[in-house]
Write a structure and sequence with these properties.
- By secondary structure, the chain is of the alpha/beta class.
- The chain is about 30% helix and about 25% strand.
- The chain has four domains: about 170 residues, Rossmann fold, CATH 3.40.50; about 70 residues, no CATH class; about 180 residues, P-loop containing nucleotide triphosphate hydrolases (Rossmann fold, 3-Layer(aba) Sandwich), CATH 3.40.50; about 80 residues, no CATH class.
- The protein is built from 18 helices and 24 strands.
- The longest helix is centred in the middle third of the chain and has 16 residues.
Length: about 525
């Protein structure tokens, strides 16, 4: 399959009836940006069709056109053979297209029933038919085989429960086309498999699905066909069974990706750092009455992975290290000197920076510029005569930090919310490097980032380690921990079950300890 102009796109060989959805020559332009350029896209009845591309490729714009949020500048939308025009989201919904956005649209203080029927309440004689709505909602969750307390406010439910409420909401209007935007991003492996089981059942019922995910293994597991966008243009299409991962990545990013993970240093190079005290030496830390974690060290030039199942205690330990959550006991040395960290402010003073799991909520102020996000924790470094912020120093420092971390933007005045996921993560890196943090705690740093940007983040992390930083790398993706980290602490039920390195650092070994199948006698 070649990738150049749209007329060279290779299509799958399967033959179908009238497509459930057709987009013909869809284009959309924003001031100075051609977001979509002549997209031709179709989805067959009962098909799971992957829509792939790096951040900024045009996926979000295409979804919003399908959902009626945007109107195309040109082109046609055809549903079941009939041309349609959407003036808003409700128009798309009326034609059977329901979109489950990555950012949920649920009202937190309402329960599942109230969210499902919001704006479409069943009434009779001016009175709400509450019992009927509850019965329908219960039947929807039974169809999804996902038990839920329909009386509980959404804010008190897990992300997985909220995801399935969104799906139930779509099914309640008899949607025949579902658009699933990164639906597995915050799900556990078990929850993801349940979602896939539901998707397979919906396929049998003739429901068509557009599936967006940065996890390529999911694409190969659940989809039938793939359409690839790059820079607003359609650059490839194929049956999932007829394309390889390497070829898929090459088309997505426009070049061959020789290796996702940069080479690790020789063990002898890391051994040399053992002559000096660790950057961070956790002698003991105890959280919520669980067994204490003892002897956890992070050395200069090292990437230490935190692996384990969701809820195993990885993030909880990281939050306790920086003083975000309380620890019943905490004995920590920094460069061999005992320190006390009772709050994130104390952690920053000690040179510990955190890249949080949810960068958009806890790591960045999206409406602020890159400059403002970088400066917010670093104003004391930008003072002139100890009194005033020097715009000259601020501009110089921000420019240097952006260059060192590879932030791509037209200027430091660009709003962070307008950046791709990978560039947003780099802004958080830049802030802590500007702060002078020597120990960086990275919690799921590649979540929601496309494959090309992931490789850039891996390279940046390895470069920082090579420069002498100590890195704690928390990830639910085993291949990341194995491919990038020098050592990995595997968590199980709030404690470290084993610390693996060298030939012992494998997917299989991590899973054995993470699930409690093995017990490390030395741990």
């Amino acid at each position: 399959m070649e990738h150049a102009s749209p007329d060279q796109i290779e299509r799958g060989t399967a033959s179908f009836a009238v497509p459930a959805l057709q987009l013909r020559n869809i284009s959309k332009e924003f001031p100075g940006v051609k977001a979509l350029d002549g997209i031709n896209f179709d989805v067959q009845p009962g098909e799971v069709h992957a829509l792939l591309g790096e951040n900024g490729a045009g996926k979000s714009t295409l979804i919003k056109i399908l959902s009626g949020v945007y109107q195309p500048d040109s082109g046609e939308i055809i549903i079941g053979g009939n041309k349609r025009h959407f003036s808003g989201y409700s128009d798309a919904l009326d034609t059977g297209i329901a979109t489950i956005f990555q950012e949920f649209t649920l009202i937190p203080y309402l329960n599942a029933v109230e969210n499902i029927f919001l704006g479409r309440e069943i009434t009779r004689g001016g009175f709400l038919r509450i019992a009927e709505m509850r019965r329908i909602a219960a039947a929807l969750f039974e169809r999804l085989e996902f038990p839920i307390n329909i009386h509980t406010p959404v804010a008190e439910l897990s992300i997985a429960h909220q995801q399935f409420i969104e799906i139930a909401k779509a099914l309640s209007v008899n949607a025949r086309i579902l658009v699933l935007d990164e639906p597995t991003a915050t799900l556990t492996p078990g929850e993801t498999q349940h979602l896939f089981s539901v998707m397979r059942e919906l396929k049998k019922q003739g429901v068509s699905m557009i599936f967006i995910s940065h996890h390529l293994e999911e694409i190969f597991e659940i989809t039938d066909r793939i359409t690839i966008l790059r820079d607003g243009r359609q650059v490839g299409q194929a049956l999932t069974s007829e394309i390889t991962t390497d070829r898929l990545v090459e088309i997505m990013i426009g070049r061959k990706l020789e290796s996702s993970f940069p080479p690790k240093p020789e063990k002898t190079a890391l051994d040399k750092t053992h002559s000096s005290p660790p950057l961070l030496d956790v002698r003991a830390i105890q959280i919520n009455g669980s067994d204490p974690v003892n002897s956890l060290q992070v050395r200069s030039g090292e990437i230490l992975g935190f692996a384990g199942m969701v809820g195993s205690g990885r993030t909880e330990l990281a939050m306790s290290l920086i003083g975000e959550t309380h620890a019943h006991r905490k004995d920590i040395l920094r460069n061999g000197v005992p320190i006390r960290i009772k709050s994130p402010t104390d952690a920053l003073r000690q040179g510990l920076g955190l890249l949080p799991e949810n960068r958009k909520v806890a790591g960045l102020i999206l409406d602020f510029s890159i400059r403002d996000n970088l400066s917010i924790n670093n104003f004391d470094k930008m003072l002139r005569a100890g009194m005033f912020i020097s715009s000259e120093i601020e501009d110089k420092d921000c420019k240097s930090a952006m260059i060192s971390t590879g932030v791509r933007a037209s200027s430091a005045a660009t709003a962070v919310g307008n950046l791709s996921g990978g560039n947003q993560q780099k802004v958080v890196f830049a802030r802590w490097l500007l702060r002078g943090c020597q120990v960086l705690i990275l919690d799921e740093p590649t979540r929601g980032i496309d494959v090309g940007s992931k490789a850039e983040i891996y390279r940046l992390i390895r470069d920082l380690a090579d420069q002498g930083h100590g890195i704690i790398f928390i990830s639910s993706e085993l291949q990341e921990v194995v491919g990038l980290c020098d050592r990995a602490a595997v968590f199980y039920k709030g404690a470290i079950a084993a610390t693996l390195e060298g030939d012992a650092l494998t997917n299989h070994q991590i899973m054995q300890y993470a699930t409690g199948s093995l017990v490390n006698e030395a741990a």
